[in-house]
Design brief:
mainly alpha; 82% helix; 142 residues; elongated; 0% strand
Length: 142
């Protein structure tokens, strides 16, 4: 079995798991904002948010990064290509987004940090980053 293809498959699997969380957690924040005054609902949502962030998203993010770095180690010539620099910049933005979700997760413990409209819009950020990253990797335009 080709080592590169196996690592690439693991990278994609981890990335899909990470993005599932990146798509779903802000949606939970929408529901949390809507139900801010319903203690029973917010208690359940806090548990769901916490488990999603720490038990699924963190490990998936770390696995995505480890397998991505491994792929780069197998293909150091990529560092000479502009598309990789653009992709890594977008991945850095994705990491900032991930951390920001952790900030909001903690902020919900003391209240509602933003309204549902904010989280509905904020939920679109990973979609835009995903599209741009996939296009850069597959088309390698520069």
């Amino acid at each position: 079995m080709d080592q590169y293809l196996f690592i690439k498959a693991l990278h994609i699997i981890a990335m899909v798991a990470w993005f599932a969380g990146l798509f779903y957690l802000p949606r939970l924040f929408v529901y949390h904002s809507i139900n801010a005054k319903k203690a029973e609902n917010t208690k359940m949502l806090r548990v769901m948010e916490y488990k999603l962030y720490y038990y699924i998203m963190h490990p998936a993010m770390l696995a995505t990064l480890v397998f991505g770095i491994w792929l780069l180690a197998l293909n150091p010539a990529w560092f000479q290509m502009g598309w990789l620099h653009a992709k890594l910049t977008l991945v850095a933005l994705l990491l900032v987004y991930h951390v920001s979700l952790g900030y909001f997760l903690k902020a919900f413990k003391t209240g509602t940090p933003k309204n549902e409209k904010f989280f509905r819009l904020y939920n679109e950020v990973p979609t835009l980053l995903l599209v741009a990253i996939i296009l850069l990797v597959e088309l390698q335009p520069f």
